[in-house]
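Usage

Read records sequentially. Each one opens with the input sequence:
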Amino acid sequence: MSAPRRGSMKGPLIGAGLMASLGAVVLLLAMFGGKVSPRDHITKSYKKVSAGTYTSTKAPLELSEDITDKYKTKERVYTPSGVFLRYHNAVVGILPDGSGSRITLDTPERGYARYHTYVGGNWGGAGGRASSFRGGGPGEGK
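and closes with the structure output:
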């Protein structure tokens, strides 16, 4: 019987390392993929007028198109009162303000509460359509 050759475990270890690396990349993509928000862009690009409120010289529709071209939104609502964009961690309200716009940046819960009059029938709740679903419990339908 001959002794095992030195380095014979190298191949399986390299393969295991590559699989672990691939798994980590897939996990990171799953965690952060699709979770895009214009929060940093808004805070850096527009003039702050108060906490969570910014201004732009662009009209609401033009500004909303600029933002959604760069940051795809989960949902948007256009009304005569403004444009409302919902992201995983933010609600952006873009309202007419003179010849430009006033931009509000809120958490999903705060933004939904603030703009419920405009988005309530479309978004269903701070968490989206599914959050308004009330499943049956004991005695359902009786």
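Summary fields computed downstream for this record:
- The longest helix spans residues 10-32.
- The chain has a mean pLDDT of 78.
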